[in-house]
Each structure stands twice: as structure tokens, then as C-alpha cells.
Amino acid sequence: MTLENMMLTDSESKTYDFIRHYIDRHGYAPKLPEIAEGIGIQSTGVVHRYLQSLIHEGLIEVTPYRHRGIRLVAPNERDYGDLRIPLIGQIAAGQPIEAIEQEEVLDLANLVSRKKTYALRVKGDSMIDEGILDGDIVICEKAITAPEGAIVVALVDNSEATLKRIKYHNKNMVTLLPANPKYSPQIYKAEQVRIQGIFLGLIRL
Length: 205
What we know:
With 205 residues, this protein is of the alpha+beta class. It has helices at 10-26, 32-39, 44-56, and strands at 60-62, 70-72, 84-92, 97-98, 104-107, 117-123, 137-141, 151-156, 160-168, 173-177, 186-189, 193-203. Strand 1 and strand 2 (70-72) form a beta hairpin.
């Protein structure tokens, strides 16, 4: 199965992200009611349908008749064929900039083995203390949620994209933290910021 064949809805992606983060935190998989609560729905039947889609995409396996029988399928267990990642635009590492789509493709079969990955070229120097420099190409995994302290692709006010480390104050406020003392933290209302990806690594050409 190739990256181009990945067909997940936002709800299915949210379910996968919740499962992955739950396992990272607890060391075991969540039950269906816990997934339902975590993604903000009531129906475990709907959760089951989402899990079937994740199984179909090769992202998880489920052992029948076990309460915590969900297992994430490791990248090296999946068959991707040739992996080509779209270079979809630029990402600010200074002040946010208008997102501009491009039509370029990076062939990273030997570097990246995850699904749901994409690349962005960094503009700016606000993340230099994380080793992310102007002109670097960052590899990110599509996500709509992220754990505290992750470096994320954040869309601000549905128009400006930036790469920053995220900090949650409460349900109403978030801070996007630069990694350069020349820049100040950016504080926003939670509804102003949409997570669009989590930083995985970078390429320096």
C-alpha cells in the first residue's frame, strides 16, 4: 500500500493519534469506551468502525475478544512500495507567513517509513536552538492533536502556518514557543490554533 492510497477521514486520523498517544503514556492500548471519550463521541460502535478503517490501512492490528487488544503496526512491518512525500509549501520559523502550496515531490523511501508524512521548507531562524535552521526541510506527520512539548506545525487563524513547540495553559489558551532568544513566545486562544502535524526530523540539503 502506498502513501497515495491512504484514505483516512479527520475522525479516523484523530482516533489513530489518540491511540498512539495513549499507548505512549500508559504502555498499553485503550479500551473502546476510552477511545470514544478521548475523541469526544459517545458511540463505541462508531469507534469500532474507525478501527476497521485503521486496520484496513495497515496502521493497527486488533486481537479479538481482548479489552486492550489494539496493537500499533510498526513502520517496518508495513508495505509502502515507493514512498514519495509531497513538498507542499513553506513553514515559518520566525513570524507566521501565508501558507503557499507548491507542487514538488521528495522521494524519501530510504529515510521515512511512516504513512501520513509530508515535508515543509523552513523560512526563518526561530527554531535554531532545536537544530532547525533556515532552509532546512522538516519532515512532519499529519496530526490534529499533539502532546505537551511537541514541536508542531500550527495553523494560526486558519491562514498562517508556523513551526513551534507547543505548551497548553488550559482549555482556552496555548503558547507556541520559539527556540531562539531573539523571539518571544506567541500566546493564542485555543480556537485560533489548529495542529496540522508533528515534527519528526529534518533534511539539510
